[in-house]
């Protein structure tokens, strides 16, 4: 037993080394050595373990630091120790355990705004937004000028899709510190995704004054400029991000990975600002490998890539158009489009309303309506430099065109137009519903439905492969109410022990009795908090051809019936046309033929084609649990409803139950032609930029 003075001298040296600089590995090692000597001499001092944990964690030795803190807690639990350990669990993304520690810390000392903030963040990262908001508000009660709590509160409201509450929280953070870069960045991002690009730009510029090398703000500044048609400024900002090469061994930021694609695409858009949209096709023009890499979010390493030409000085940037400068009938067109677009808003947590996308998709809906009416009246359309009768893809391409220009950040590309090599390997559309402890809010209300579907499939599987154990499996399934309840059932069969996959089937209308692959649900994991629950569609060439044949047949039928409908308005005909439109889109949803944006594109085609048949959607996308069975149709995601419906008839039924179709008002007939009013990218960007707050005052919206 060494003398106590000696122990405290060693302890003092250990702390001194620790303080001298953790950046210095040598000092850190010396400190660890001295502290470990103290522990071997006197193993019952909690502060020595805590001290050692403080040196271990910055070195990335988290599990050792955790076991030291656990020892310290066993010796003498305190609010500080629990908070410290909770923080380390939080860094390790073990949010459930971290939550327990923050909770215990707060029970021992309730006045700890930082522990309260962290407790909120453990909720936030698990998708439990309402609980997170409560905790952030608690933290603000304890510390009124807590900037980080306002920032996190703003993020939680943004994730919920509550724009006003989020804006207010960000505003409060900025009143406390107008130079709070993170808040400026988050507020700018939110404004961009709300469709307020001008406002967003102000935040990104302010952010860059304070932090000239902030990659996110620099990238978003470039993106906002380009989306508004200011290509010179936009490309300047993008080039700055490109110069920010990651150091060897450093991971490239998402912005750095995306910016080269955005810059090439921006140059392409600028060169085509004044070319009539009917004369070219983006999917054909952009190089195959470029599209493939962009859609898959891969690093920009493309062999023999020929860069898009630089900006040509004779093509001027897009100028701001005053709403009043449009003729009255065009003003009305814009107001009607805004109204139609707002009908597409998902009233579900996680979807921020985006005014710009609303306007674009409202105009797309009207353009689809006008094009379908022309086709049924035997008129041709002009597409990709050819004049011909409209095909089903042309109808979707109208909506693709508007969705693309509304947010140039996202590659909205036809997957079957990708290079053959990438298609033969298959293209995945992947959505994580649960990853570890992180739950995807947007799809929460679908879990029930998917779970129900999985239970059915498990019974079928055991019925075929394990008839003896069927009763046991059935009893076990009755206890399944959450995804994690499936884990013990996976153990019933050695094949599914580590996880299993379930495929949905899509019945053919063309060949009765035939079924196609829908999408794949995968569950893997061994315990709660370690689950991966995901959904994906695998787009292969063969699958694409089967779906195309189905859609071709329906479109042919639809065109024939539409032509009859235009001549005679019998009720039975309208009904048949409605069902054909919904069936056609049912296959489109299950095919998921675009790299992004399939849902809103399909939805505007449904609305536009229905309007051509004389029917208008008057039901706002429903929300709320009461109607979950029928009307979840688009409350959260139309595509999910189509994927989980047992067939196209069931899908039509669900859709019609909330669409509340009524006869269309005759005033739609008198609206000017969308494709003639906005014949170029320049005119499209102008109309998306124009401020239409006047619409509300005039309310000339077609009622």
TrEMBL record:
UniProtKB keywords: TPR repeat
Name of the molecule in the record: TTC13 protein
The organism of origin for this protein: Phainopepla nitens (Phainopepla)
TPR repeats: 79-112, 147-180, 181-214
Alphabetized Pfam families for the sequence: TPR_1, TPR_16, TPR_8
InterPro entries: TPR-like_helical_dom_sf, TPR_rpt
Domain of life from the UniProt record: Eukaryota
């Amino acid at each position: 037993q060494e003398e106590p003075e000696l122990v405290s001298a060693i302890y003092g040296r250990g702390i001194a080394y620790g303080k001298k600089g953790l950046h210095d590995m040598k000092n850190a090692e010396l400190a660890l050595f001295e502290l470990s000597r103290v522990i071997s001499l006197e193993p019952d001092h909690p502060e020595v373990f805590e001290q050692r944990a403080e040196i271990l964690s910055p070195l990335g030795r988290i599990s050792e630091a955790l076991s030291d803190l656990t020892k310290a807690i066993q010796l003498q639990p305190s609010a500080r120790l629990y908070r410290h350990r909770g923080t380390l669990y939080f860094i390790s993304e073990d949010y459930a355990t971290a939550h327990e520690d923050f909770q215990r810390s707060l029970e021992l000392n309730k006045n700890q705004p930082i522990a309260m903030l962290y407790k909120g963040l453990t909720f936030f990262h698990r998708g439990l937004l309402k609980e997170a908001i409560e905790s952030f508000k608690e933290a603000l009660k304890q510390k009124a000028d807590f900037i980080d709590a306002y920032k996190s509160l703003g993020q939680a409201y943004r994730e919920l899709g509550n724009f006003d509450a989020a804006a207010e929280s960000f505003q409060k953070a900025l009143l406390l510190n107008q130079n709070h870069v993170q808040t400026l960045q988050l507020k700018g991002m939110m404004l961009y995704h709300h469709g307020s690009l001008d406002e967003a730009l102000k935040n990104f510029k302010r952010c860059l004054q304070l932090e000239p090398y902030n990659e996110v703000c620099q990238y978003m500044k470039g993106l906002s400029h380009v989306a508004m048609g200011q290509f010179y400024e936009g490309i300047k900002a993008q080039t700055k991000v490109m110069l920010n090469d990651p150091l060897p061994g450093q991971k490239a930021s998402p912005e750095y990975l995306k910016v080269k694609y955005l810059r090439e695409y921006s140059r392409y858009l600028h060169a085509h600002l004044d070319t009539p949209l009917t004369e070219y096709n983006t999917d054909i023009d952009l190089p195959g490998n470029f599209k493939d890499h962009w859609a898959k979010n891969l690093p920009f390493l493309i062999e023999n890539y020929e860069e898009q030409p630089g900006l040509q000085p004779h093509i001027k940037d897009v100028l701001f158009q005053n709403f009043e400068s449009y003729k009255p009938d065009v003003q009305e067109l814009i107001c009607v489009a805004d109204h139609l677009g707002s009908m597409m808003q998902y009233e579900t947590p996680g979807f921020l309303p985006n005014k710009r996308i609303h306007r674009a998709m409202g105009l797309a809906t009207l353009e689809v309506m006008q094009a379908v009416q022309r086709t049924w009246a035997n008129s041709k359309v002009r597409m990709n430099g050819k004049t011909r009768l409209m095909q089903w893809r042309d109808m979707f391409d109208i909506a693709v065109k508007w969705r693309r220009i509304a947010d140039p950040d996202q590659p909205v590309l036809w997957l079957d137009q990708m290079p053959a090599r990438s298609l033969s390997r298959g293209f995945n559309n992947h959505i994580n519903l649960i990853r570890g402890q992180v739950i995807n809010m947007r799809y929460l209300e679908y879990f029930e439905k998917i779970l129900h579907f999985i239970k059915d499939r498990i019974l079928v599987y055991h019925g075929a492969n394990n008839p003896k154990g069927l009763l046991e499996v059935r009893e076990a399934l009755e206890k399944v109410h959450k995804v994690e309840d499936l884990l013990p059932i996976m153990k019933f069969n050695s094949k599914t022990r580590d996880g299993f996959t379930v495929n949905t089937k899509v019945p053919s209308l063309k060949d009765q009795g035939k079924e196609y692959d829908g999408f794949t649900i995968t569950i893997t994991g061994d315990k709660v908090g370690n689950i991966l629950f995901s959904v994906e569609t695998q787009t292969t060439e063969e699958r694409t051809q089967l779906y195309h044949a189905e859609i071709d047949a329906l479109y042919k039928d639809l065109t024939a019936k539409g032509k009859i409908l235009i001549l005679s308005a019998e009720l039975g005909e309208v009904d048949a046309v409605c069902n054909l439109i919904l069936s056609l889109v049912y296959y489109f949803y299950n095919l998921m033929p675009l790299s992004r944006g399939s849902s809103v594109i399909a939805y505007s085609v449904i609305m536009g084609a229905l309007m051509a048949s004389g029917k208008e959607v008057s039901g706002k996308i429903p929300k709320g649990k009461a109607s979950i069975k029928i009307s979840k149709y688009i409350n959260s995601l139309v595509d999910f409803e189509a994927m989980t419906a047992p067939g196209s008839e069931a899908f039509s039924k669900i859709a019609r139950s909330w669409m509340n179709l009524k006869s269309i008002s005759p005033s739609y007939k008198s609206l000017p032609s969308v494709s003639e009013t906005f014949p170029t990218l320049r005119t499209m960007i102008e109309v998306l930029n124009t401020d239409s707050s006047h619409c509300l005052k005039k309310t000339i919206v077609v009622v």
